[in-house]
Write a sequence for this structure.
């Protein structure tokens, strides 16, 4: 019988364990099934859907060149995916299904249900870990428990990594099969194609060009007006590239010098990604939007008016507004600003962090449950290894520090673009009036005082 590879968040032919193993075992056919309504329930952005769709078209070309057909289907919910898979398995005389694991709760439940169902009809289910550079559960403390704090996790992660296979898998060999490609269902959506190139090859190009400048990352990564980060997050979120491939390419960049790899700042960010995924695997309840820290104080009194001003980039705090408009216009926000925007909403406006988490998911092209939830809980001090409650980033001092000349603000808040680099961070009342820019929606000093009292 044939081997069916079910593509999900692993839209690549290289370093894809499920695809690789299936091709070792027999003749491969591939399928991707979009679950439209499920995705809406998970609040995923239209931009992300568009990026997935275009990446699938690229994936299909790559697979076809290997003699593998890819059927692209769509349905409403995860249950429907299971039904469709069963039909495909019957129609195509499939005796084994192969896929790489996903870690959020609804996904793991669906996969377990599928596995039970297929085992009953004698179809072999083979599951792999393709999303993490180290298999989940490998990194544990001396008591055999998962880490809750990043720094010791990273230390232990490095020790494990030194002994783990670190070479990404190659693409599978070409197979001799005849097929006519099926009609594709259309579920495409709009996104900024001028900013984001879809597909595996585009991801590798981005990685290579970033690696040329990776030595500057440490200094440039916090300056939003500069393209100092890899901008690979949208690719990592849908698996057009894997974390393992990124880490391996970085090691190659350092000519195999492990000490340089493990001391690298960008490497550290990739381990944060692993950390948040592991946290979700160990704590499935996070997928129900519970605070990680059950004792965290959660007195969120901020209402819709504040939330709305924040979403629209009309808070009257130029750096926050620039950040939110970058998100709304491009589907991406710089990491420094994600922290600022999140702390502003949660701690200074006292709006429930879940509202912000959801809005980010609804707009981000790189929306990723584990990283987004981890980021929001870090900022709101409700998370595993989060900022202490009293850490509240001041929009004004952050703006002066990380956007010293106001270049980033000028780009996204054009009504302020004529202001000089001193006043652009905090325009006067008269300037706001004449430029049509709103008054601050909160009094920073008072809001900070209130937050500290409430959260202490
Ligand atoms: P780079 O700086 O080049 O980093 C390389 C890769 O490492 C990223 O692509 C990402 O996969 C990973 N990474 C970097 N920083 C983090 C981090 N703090 N946590 C986890 N992984 C990280 N990232 C997402 O991918 N999806 C999200 O939905 C998301 N939501 C966030 C929400 C908040 C409130 C915060 C504070 C952070 C969030 N992040 C999220 C993490 C981070 O902001 C983005 O990964 C990063 O800005 C993406 O840009 P880049 O690819 O240029 O990153």
């Amino acid at each position: 019988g044939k081997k069916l590879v079910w593509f999900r968040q692993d839209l690549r032919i290289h370093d894809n364990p499920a695809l690789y193993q299936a091709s070792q075992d027999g003749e491969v056919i591939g399928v991707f099934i979009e679950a439209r309504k499920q995705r809406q329930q998970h609040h995923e952005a239209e931009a992300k859907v568009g990026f997935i769709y275009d990446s699938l078209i690229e994936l299909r070309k790559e697979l076809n060149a290997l003699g593998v057909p890819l059927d692209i289907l769509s349905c409403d919910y995860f249950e429907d995916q299971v039904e469709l898979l069963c039909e495909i398995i019957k129609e195509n005389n499939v005796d084994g299904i192969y896929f790489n694991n996903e870690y959020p709760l609804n996904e793991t439940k669906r996969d377990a249900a599928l596995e039970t169902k297929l085992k009953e009809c004698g179809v072999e289910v083979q599951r792999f870990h393709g999303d993490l550079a180290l298999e989940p559960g490998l990194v544990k403390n001396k008591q055999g428990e998962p880490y809750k704090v990043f720094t010791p996790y990273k230390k232990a992660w490095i020790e494990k990594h030194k002994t783990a296979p670190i070479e990404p898998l190659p693409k599978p060999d070409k197979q001799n099969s005849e097929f006519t490609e099926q009609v594709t269902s259309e579920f495409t959506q709009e996104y900024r194609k001028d900013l984001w190139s879809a597909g595996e090859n585009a991801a590798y190009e981005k990685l290579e060009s970033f690696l040329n400048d990776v030595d500057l990352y440490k200094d440039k990564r916090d300056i939003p007006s500069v393209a100092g980060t890899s901008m690979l997050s949208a690719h990592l979120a849908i698996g057009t590239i894997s974390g393992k491939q990124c880490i391996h390419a970085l090691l190659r960049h350092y000519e195999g010098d492990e000490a340089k790899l493990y001391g690298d700042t960008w490497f550290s960010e990739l381990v944060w990604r692993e950390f948040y995924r592991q946290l979700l695997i160990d704590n499935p309840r996070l997928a129900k939007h519970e605070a990680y820290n059950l004792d965290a104080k959660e007195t969120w009194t901020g209402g819709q008016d504040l939330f709305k001003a924040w979403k629209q980039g009309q808070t009257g705090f130029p750096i926050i507004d620039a950040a939110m408009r970058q998100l709304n216009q491009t589907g991406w926000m710089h990491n420094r600003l994600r922290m600022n925007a999140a702390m502003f909403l949660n701690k200074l406006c006292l709006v429930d962090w879940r509202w912000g988490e959801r809005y980010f998911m609804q707009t981000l092209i790189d929306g990723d449950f584990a990283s987004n939830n981890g980021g929001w809980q870090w900022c709101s001090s409700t998370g595993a290894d989060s900022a202490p409650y009293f850490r509240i980033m001041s929009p004004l001092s952050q703006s002066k520090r990380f956007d010293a000349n106001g270049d980033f603000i000028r780009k996204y808040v054009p009504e302020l673009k004529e202001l000089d680099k001193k006043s652009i961070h905090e325009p006067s009342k008269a300037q706001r009036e004449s430029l049509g820019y709103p008054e601050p929606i909160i009094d920073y000093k008072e809001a900070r005082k209130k937050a500290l009292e409430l959260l202490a």
Notes: The chain has 21 helices and five strands. The first helix runs from residue 17 to 25.
